[in-house]
Structures are given as structure tokens and as C-alpha cells.
Amino acid sequence: MRKLLLVAALALALAPLVVGCSKKPQGGGETTGLTAADQMFLNNHVYFDFDRYNIRPDQIDTLQSKVAYLGQNPSAQVEIQGHCDERGTEAYNLALGDRRAKAAYNYVVGQGVASSRLTTVSYGKDRPLAFGNDEAAWAQNRRAQFVLLNR
User: Fold this and answer.
1) Strands, DSSP E only, in 12-142?
2) What is the pLDDT of residues 53-91, one digit of tens each?
3) Is 10 domain-assigned?
4) Were both Cys, which of 75, 108, 125, 130 would link to 140 (CB 3.0–4.6 Å)?
């Protein structure tokens, strides 16, 4: 009985991820029709330290690969999503997610990508990649995620 309840709870928790939305494929999502370069662009995220929004030195290569991709795909339109781990209030995490998205945006624009091709949005703690109450899960959730809007 406990196993059945656990499976049911897991199914309910994952249901929002399975239900379709009107947007095109996102990082980690459906990959039909995407090239290997598209998938790499979508699945490599920019990670941040706890309670920080500055670009870490170890994330520069990831951002540079995004700049290179955008240079090779001049018609690509991108949404940069800011995400946080579950700690903190909803309002705090939305503001921090916004600063993370804008930090990635500013880096990419500073490298010559037209700002008209980029938008930002914050999801705060509402769209975690990893579930868990430990540093390993939290570290995956503190990210800026790039989403192709026109693929």
C-alpha cells in the first residue's frame, strides 16, 4: 500500500511536467526536430552560487558556447529563464531569479548578441530541475536556462 501511495504521489508531482504547453521545446524537454547543437544549447545551463546572481568564472565557457550558438543561428529568439532553489520566500526568489536571468542576458548582449533576440523571465523556485532537500538538488535549481522560442 505504501508503494502504491508513493507511486501515486510521484505521478501527481510529475503531471505538470507531462502536460503539454504551447511553447516550443525547452531545455530538457521534447527534442523532436532539434539538432545536436540545439540540444546542447538547451541542456547546458548557467549555474549560480547560493543567494548570488553574479556569473561564476566556471560558467563563462557555458555562456561563451551560447554566444557562439547564437552567432551561428542568427534567427534564433531566446528566453532566458531565472531559477532558484526552494529556500527563501516566493517574492525573494522571483527577484533573485530575475537578477540571474538578467546577469546571463547582460553577458550575452555584452558579447555582441542583439538584445532584440532575447527576453528574460523569472520562475523563482517554481520550476525545479531536481527534487530534494540537499545541496546537490539545490545547486541544479540555481540556474539561468536558455529556451528557444522559434524552433
Assistant:
1) 46-47, 78-83, 118-124
2) 999 999 999 999 999 999 999 999 999 999 999 999 999
3) no
4) 130
3-state class of 97 per DSSP? helix
Supply 76's cell numbers.
534564433
The pTM assigned to this predicted structure is 0.79
The tally of domains found in the chain comes to 1
In angstroms, rounded to a whole number, what is the distance separating the alpha carbons of residues 4 and 115? 49
C-alpha cell at 51: 543567494
Instruction: Evaluate whether residue 8 is within a structural domain.
Output: no
Domain that holds residue 83: 22-148
CA dist list (Å): 67 to 30, 62, 108, 122, 132: 23, 9, 6, 21, 32
Q: Is residue 3 part of a domain?
A: no
